[in-house]
Amino acid sequence: MPTLRQLFLANNAQTTHFPLLLEFERAEGVHLYDINGKPYLDLISGIGVSSLGHGNPYVINAIKEQVDKYMHLMVYGEYVQTPQVRFAEKLVSVLPQNLSSVYFVNSGAEAVEGALKLAKRFTGRSQVVACYNSYHGSTHGALSVMGNEDYKQAYRPLLPGVNFIQFNHIDDLQLITEQTACVVIETVQGEAGIRVPDIAYMRALRERCTQTSTLLILDEIQAAFGRTGKLFAFEHFGIEPDILVLAKALGGGMPIGAFIASNQVMSSLKENPILGHITTFGGHPVCCAAGLAALEVLLNENLIEQVDAKAALFRKLLDHPAIKEVRGKGLMLSIELESFELNKKIIDRCIEHGVIVDWFLHCSNSMRIAPPLIITDEEIKHACEVILEAINYYR
Q1: Is 210 exposed, middle or buried (CB count within 10 Å of its CB: 0-12, 13-18, 19+)?
Q2: Which among 289, 221, 375, 225 is positioned nearest to 59, based on CA atoms?
Q3: What 8-state DSSP symbol labels residue 78?
Q4: Does pTM top 0.90 for this prediction?
Q5: Above 90 in pLDDT, residue 244?
Q6: How far apart are CA 133 and CA 41, in angstroms?
Q7: pLDDT tens digits, residue range 180-192?
């Protein structure tokens, strides 16, 4: 009789030759528990998803209540479904006035696809500007605006008319012209190893887009919902996007994404042609119920206000000669080490000792730290002790 691990390797599509092969039985709070009951402290939140930790009772109750009422009823946008309406209403209430129309989809990559289509449709332009070392997803359109050729070359041809600029380089903004439909940019670059732009750069970007009537798409798939110490990362820079892209923590652990714009911009999907963007499962009522519950918990439990102090504790404790730099904003942190080889050894030892950390797609010599926002000071201290022990072991 094959084991579950053997069946996983035989029947589930693999994305690398070296999956972690950790087998978990349950998850609670900031911990995952394997089949032997061993706890693992989750310092990556399932890559930015589980901001409230695992098994939040308010979110779980919202899911159970909605399952008893109804699940999928119709493709998105036709029926008036309470979870969709209430979730959109809540999101709009905490966003700038111009972000008033929410299009729910299934994932971050799909939200990026929808945002790119919307920008082209509204402006009537075809050129797109994106950033080197960016990551926006792996579908064809999202891959086209990824700024790393190594991950793209095997899938060409991709979308034409995409130009790349250096992130946080004001001089490059001149490449945004009256022919540019949109600039798609991460408010804080994630897979580049957590790169935080200057306020002056972000404001110059906003001004250049306004000057050229170019739509500014901010990808906050990783950075939103308190991760950086603000509800939305763009609040740090005193700017507003024309289109906002969300996913990951948006669903409280359930799969959902969204692109959000003004009613005027979003209305362009209604005609020439009608049904300009379609999704069957986008805005699934159970996912919307979970997302609404998660947002209410985030706003009501003072979690965002604690982020900066927790981030400061990580920075204080991770003071080590082998750590070249600690970058980031809030609990979206990157620990730069000498090489990928050293980083991978340290990551593996941390996991072996019950602390889950990871590396970045475009910055493999840096360690990802993005724990659930509910992590306590004691759990931070324990995590840092394990990380430092692993570093010392390989020095």
Answers
A1: exposed
A2: 289
A3: S
A4: yes
A5: yes
A6: 29
A7: 999 999 999 999 9
